[in-house]
Amino acid sequence: MSKMIDIIVDSKTYTAKEGSLLIDLLIKEKIKVPYFCYHESLGADGNCRMCMVEIEGQKRPQIACDTLIKEHMEVRSTGKNIEKIRTDILELELINHPVDCPVCDQAGECSLQEFYMDYGLHNAKVIIQDKVKHTKHVDLGSNVILDQERCVLCARCTRFTDKITGTHELGIIGRGDHARVTTMPGRKLDNPYAMNVVDLCPVGALTSKDFRFSQRVWFLQTVNSICHGCAKGCNIFIDHNKMKYQDDVIYRFRPRRNDDVNGFFMCDEGRLSYKQLQENRQETTLLNGKEITEDEAIQEAKELIQRYKDTISVVIDANLYSEEMEAILTFAKEINASVYSPLDVYVDESFKDDMLKSANRAANYKTIGILNIDTNKPKSNGLIINFNHPQEFKADSHINFFTHKCDRDDLVFPIAVFSENSGTLKNEDGIVQKCEKAVSRNIPIPTIIESLIKISL
Amino acid sequence: MKTCKIVSRKFHLENSHTLEVAKVHGAYNTLEKMEVYSSLEIIEIIKESNLRGKGGGGSPAGDKWVLMPQNSDNPSFLVVNCDESEPGTFKDRQIISKDPHLLIEGILITCFAIKAKHAYIYIRGEYKQFQDILQSAIDEAYKDGLLDNCDITIHRGAGAYICGEKSALLESMEGKRGHPRLKPKQKEPEWFFDHPALVNNVETIASVPFIIQNGANAYKAFGTKQSPGTLLFAMSGHVNKPGVYEAEYGTPMMEYIEYFGGGIKNAKKLKAVIPGGASSAILTAEEASTVTLDYETMRSMGSSLGTGGMIVMDEDTCMVSALKNLLEFYHEESCGQCTPCREGTGWTDKLVGKIVNKEGTKEDIDKLLDIADTMNGKTICVFAPAVATVITSFLSKFRDEFEAAL
Q1: Which site among A78, A88, A283, B74 is 20 to 30 Å from A28 CA-CA?
Q2: Distance between CA atoms of B229 and B305, rounded to whole angstroms?
Q3: Domain limits, chain B
């Protein structure tokens, strides 16, 4: 076990693990240090040379990403000398950069822009015609577009395919200022986690074909949520925006760091699952395929519950929030219904891998077990009340609460998807995680709890 | 001029590269010593001789040898660096083409000392014809049973200058891009596929048989106290007889140029000498007349002995063009890993290009020095600092020429 020791950074004392990386401490303590190539998931590479600090007793400035914390270490991260070095290296980083920020999708979340505002602010000394030219539009595959001119060659993307996925599709070819990222000859970037390179890229070199040009990032609002793609429960950011006169729209999911669950990444399938949340939605109440008013539907539901008294089964989707499941249980008790949640339908062994993807494709199946809900199929019944469970079960009559359009007869109530509601989930490892409400629709779709209140009254 | 032939002893012989000729002239006699000495004793002799690495750095070879594990199940390797790409340097190719058996003999002793069973020779891709000679010598040695206990494999590089840097060389041998590795935090051997490896220059290894055969003191009889022994100094540029001539360390530079090189071509005046391959600071004629060829003197002059490959320039040489020529090389050869080097080599090349084309301004000269400062000491390997030294030495010693070219 390495011991905790005190070190001094800019005249302030901090406690850190002996032998840990200095840059980790600087990042953790929010001490300003510019860097491109370092990433906590990929380790030090030491190529960008931006994270220079001065260390007492060392003749030359050192890169923080390759400096191990030692006892009695004294570090200076500010001062004229170190700032000049950062400015000079940043100027070199920019001499062959196309500075096409106005048409670059990364603008607003670009490390080059941030560091330029912190350390640069110099005038361009190389005119655009004299800059090294590369290919501006390379379709790498897996929704990733490469602009080689914007690249700072930090090698995060190549290290990701080498160290994290082990698929080695990306590499750097050429030397000196002709070096560029590309795929191996005849290969495409093709792995289930490929789009993480877009998040890893500190500049606008790698952008997402799915997201690019759809929104300026500074218009986006971000909330914390959990991916519902499988039981892993990868932590995500939901980036959404409600443009004037339009509805609130989700533009992308991004992985949110959680070392206990997903680390820094998420799979592409989960990342793109936001689309499905806003397509083909059930928005109105239906009876046998015909639109009816909500009041009529409530009336119909109440009558059905009365008519099939004692022969009612309730079926619950294992993706619902725990709070919703509990509310459904209370409701079921009130109407004396038995509750089921068949889980077989969620198991997909072909989806599973040894990184993040789980074969259990239900975000909250753990809670089904904790609430002692029967996971068998409902027995033949008079009435089945289905809360978004994907299977259809035989019964005399049905009341369906559906998020998405589903070609079924009987009574259908629309319900909100997870991004339109807040709640908690328990992932397959038993970790309870909270989702915040992201989207507020112009015409809101009621949540399960709101609908239940109306029917119960 | 004291003649000294430690490495170049057999160079003048006809068919010196063949086993037959080499054996007649004493090759592989040292192998008997492996019965006499233990591996640790051999390392001790090398340390005692203060044999210095002859690939450019000049650090004592023995210091690296002692880092190799003596009792380990993990196999160790010897890697001989023959990626001779420093402009102005062409000494190692003399060894592998004129006396390859001396190198093989050195490899066998070194492998014995560091307990390695396999040696690799990393050779630059352009040395195909020399590689063929070396390979035929290795084949002969295999046939003769000399390599029964130690394998030698030639690994051919693809022609990148940076692969002469030992960690980039190992990356290249591992099948990766030739990018230098981050420096280790403590003294440790190099690593080849996670196995300890010793990387030495061809001439360093070729010097080993003499030292083991004749003892450390015989080697120290040559050269200076701190730089003992000899080096295959090379000479190119405006001299009458360019070539490779072995001389002891501490030889006055001008004496060397006069004696071996036959003086400056066309009886011109000397203007400058780049003393140790392109990457060392240029010396003016005045400085050249005072220096001796050893590591310490060169360092005190703000330059370095490097590989000992001297580039001699006469009074008609345009220093701006000379610098442009060198920077084109560095621009081409920067591996592109670290930002200051990747972008700095290109930018300085373009700026000096502007000055050559009479489009330069005073600001360009200041900017050149500024970029050189950013490149110095802020990168993983010493490529960028070397370029910075080249730029600053040219600009400080011949500034008037650059200003006149504006």
Answers
A1: A88
A2: 14
A3: 19-220, 230-314, 319-404
CATH class held by domain A286-456: alpha beta
Contact B335 A175 (CB under 8 A): yes
DSSP state of B269: P
Residue A68 touches partner B, C-beta closer than 8 Å: yes
What's the pLDDT score for residue B2?
A: 77
User: Whats the size of chain B, residue-wise?
Assistant: 406
Whether A124 has a pLDDT exceeding 90, the answer reads: no
**E strand or H helix at B371, and its extent?**
helix B362-375
The pLDDT assigned to A457 comes to 64
CB-closest option in B182, B345, B378 to A61: B378
**CATH architecture for segment(s) A4-78:** Roll (3.10)
The reported pLDDT for the residue numbered A126 is 81
User: Which residues in chain A touch residue B340, judged by CB atoms under 8 angstroms apart?
Assistant: 49, 88-89, 92
Q: Decide: B80 and B207 in contact? Cβ < 8 Å.
A: no
Tell me if chain B has a CB within 8 Å of the CB of A23.
Answer: no
User: In chain A, what residues touch B157 (CB-CB under 8 Å)?
Assistant: none
Query: What are the Cα distances from residue A81, in Å, to A12, A53, A75, A268, A423?
Result: 19, 10, 13, 43, 51
Fold for B319-404, please state it: de novo design (two linked rop proteins) (1.20.1440)
Instruction: Tell me the chain B residues in contact with residue A130 when contact means C-beta distances shorter than 8 Å.
Output: 350
Tell which residue, A447, A440, A418, A446, has the closest CA to residue A247.
A440
pLDDT tens, residue by residue, A25-70 = 999 999 999 999 999 999 999 999 999 999 999 989 999 999 999 9
Chain B CB contacts of A148 below 8 Å: none
Are residues A175 and B332, on separate chains, in Cβ contact within 8 Å?
A: yes
CATH tag, A93-208: 3.30.70.20
Task: Report whether A268 contacts A252 (CB < 8 A).
Answer: no
Q: Does A46 touch chain B (CB under 8 A)?
A: yes
Q: Where are chain A's structural domains? A: 4-78, 93-208, 286-456
Using CB atoms, pick whichever of A85, A95, A172 lies closest to residue B347. A95
Where does A17-132 have alpha helices with state H?
22-28, 80-95, 111-115
- What is the structure's pLDDT at A122? 79
Contact (CB<8Å) B343/A93: yes
Rounded Cα distance between B20 and B27, Å, is: 9
Q: Considering only CB atoms, which chain A residues are within 8 Å of B344?
A: 92
Chain B residues whose CB is inside 8 A of the A47 CB are 337-339, 380
Instruction: Determine, for residues B334 and A89 on separate chains, whether the beta-carbon distance falls below 8 Å.
Output: no
A interface test, pick of B167, B333, B378, B383 with most A CB neighbours within 10 Å: B378
Chain B interface residues (partner A, CB cutoff 8 A)? 160, 162, 177, 182, 185, 331-347, 350, 367, 370-371, 373-374, 377-380
Residues of A in contact with B164 (CB under 8 A): none
Regions in chain B scoring below 70 on pLDDT: none
Read off the pLDDT of residues A413-455 as tens digits, 9 standing for 90 and up: 999 999 999 999 999 999 999 999 999 999 999 999 999 998 8
* CATH topology (fold) of B230-314: Ubiquitin-like (UB roll) (3.10.20)
Cα–Cα dist B311/B324, whole Å: 15
Q: Is the pTM of this model over 0.95?
A: no
Contact B330, B387 (CB under 8 A): yes
The answer to whether B336 contacts A153, with C-beta atoms less than 8 Å apart, is: yes
| CA–CA distance, B66 with B113 (Å, rounded to integer) | 9
Q: What is d(CA B111, CA B116) in angstroms, rounded to the nearest whole number? A: 5
Q: HEC states along A247-312?
A: CEEEEEEEECCECCCCECCCCHHHHCCHHHHCCCECCCCEECCEECCHHHHHHHHHHHHHHCCCCE
Architecture per CATH, B19-220: 3-Layer(aba) Sandwich (3.40)
Mean pLDDT across the stretch A226-237?
95
